[in-house]
Design brief:
GO terms for molecular function: cadmium ion transmembrane transporter activity; manganese ion transmembrane transporter activity. Helix content is 83%, strand content 0%. The protein is mainly alpha-helical. The longest helix is centred in the C-terminal third of the chain and has 39 residues.
Length: 406
């Protein structure tokens, strides 16, 4: 009897560890989409070794944001939109609407990225590649145990991307000493680069990807906080490792004076570093980054409307599939609607301060978190992120709106 009990405890711990790692990788791989590859390449071209400082600051802001969001979701046992509705009636509905619209628009880009990845990897037509990739993503959610399948795909894709990026970083022989020095004393500072990276790694639906996954797996309550915190930090660390590896790979190419093709900067880096094999490797990384973002965007966006109706809750996997289908059909017949993506990109920058600010207020409401006491240092650091990203998000929105009418 004792042996059976011990076996059950071990099995539960194994499942819990797998879910925690899966949630961390879901958040990390959701943030590492086609845009991630391009942003990191372009900013490294512009800032060279000084981009290391941007990575450091953006990762610190990411940690403060994610630790706050994941903890408050776990303690309350509620999804982001449910917490927001308790803080201010209707706010959760507003949050759900902008996250679903943003997730759908960006998923068009993710599907396109998956098509381009298969094109670089195997020479398949991008639209055909996008359709094949969407079918793969849909297949995950056909399973009864879709959550476990999603965790595994995120973990495998994450490890593949890390290994390939580290390999390319190694063969380009970047000036590591210069990068380390600029991490703390940069020659150039770009506020725009910091805002873009923070918005890309914890903006929009990504803010809630890991926290909602843990909630769906039944990991919640004050007693689970040590595991939740560890999982959130793991997600940021994985994101950081990938960004640093890609940064060093690009820096190695730039420091050699090689010209990067502006039409497809990240593909150009891999091709310059390792020839035709490098270009194929880029295809693998692009596809892995895009497909995990397709899955993460669909899963998290739909998690924001699940609590609004018992019908949505019951058939949420099929709604996720519909979400992926709509993104794919839009790309196949319309392409990437640039103006919509511009506006949604600007709105995305505002989702983080609105969502994080709402959750910080919720952390001090007994009807939401009970007797839980939120650490003061997390409130202060979270509040700092809200103010900085709120101000910069509004500035970005003001800049982007005139572009829609050109």
């Amino acid at each position: 009897m004792t042996e059976q009990k011990n076996g059950a405890v071990k099995a539960k711990k194994k499942v819990s560890r797998s879910v925690l790692l899966g949630a961390a990788f879901l958040m990390a791989t959701s943030s590492i989409g086609p845009g991630f590859l391009t942003q990191t390449t372009v900013f490294t071209q512009q800032l060279a070794a000084s981009f290391a400082f941007v990575i450091l600051i953006s990762l610190l802001l990411d940690v403060f944001a994610q630790m706050n969001v994941w903890r408050i979701i776990a303690v309350s046992g509620l999804r982001g939109q449910e917490i927001a509705n308790k803080v201010l009636p209707g706010l959760g509905v507003f949050l759900a609407i902008i996250i679903v619209i943003g997730g759908l628009a960006f998923n068009i880009g993710n599907v396109a990225g998956a098509g381009l990845g298969l094109n670089a990897m195997l020479g398949i037509d991008p639209i055909t590649g996008a359709i094949i990739s969407a079918a793969f993503a849909i297949f995950i959610f056909v399973f009864k145990e879709a959550g476990k399948a999603m965790d595994k795909v995120a973990q495998i894709a994450g490890f593949v991307m890390i290994i390939l990026m580290l390999y390319v970083a190694f063969i380009t022989s970047p000036p590591v000493g210069e990068a380390i020095a600029n991490t703390f004393v940069p020659e150039k500072i770009s506020i725009f680069a910091i805002v873009t990276l923070v918005g890309g790694t914890v903006g929009g639906y990504i803010t809630f990807a890991g926290g909602h996954r843990l909630l769906d797996a039944g990991i919640k309550g004050v007693e689970s906080l040590p595991e939740v915190t560890k999982s959130s930090v793991t997600g940021i660390v994985v994101t950081g490792v990938m960004r640093v590896a890609l940064f060093l790979a690009v820096l190695g190419v730039v420091s050699q004076g090689l010209a990067i093709d502006p039409e497809n900067p990240p593909a150009s880096v891999f091709q310059l570093a390792a020839g035709d094999i490098g270009y194929r490797m880029f295809g693998v990384i692009m596809w892995a980054a895009a497909i995990t973002s397709v899955v993460g965007a669909a899963y998290t966006s739909v998690s924001f409307i699940r609590s609004f109706s018992p019908v949505i809750e019951k058939y949420h996997n099929w709604i996720i599939i519909l979400f992926i289908l709509v993104s794919t059909v839009t790309f196949a017949f319309v392409g990437r609607p640039v103006n919509i993506l511009l506006l949604v990109g600007a709105l995305n920058a505002l989702i983080l301060p609105i969502a994080l600010g709402t959750l910080l207020i919720a952390a001090y409401k007994k009807n939401i978190v009970g007797d839980y006491k939120h650490p003061l240092w997390l409130t202060i650091s979270g509040g700092f992120v809200v103010v900085v990203m709120g101000y910069l998000g509004i500035m970005t929105l003001i800049e982007q709106i005139p572009l829609l009418f050109k």
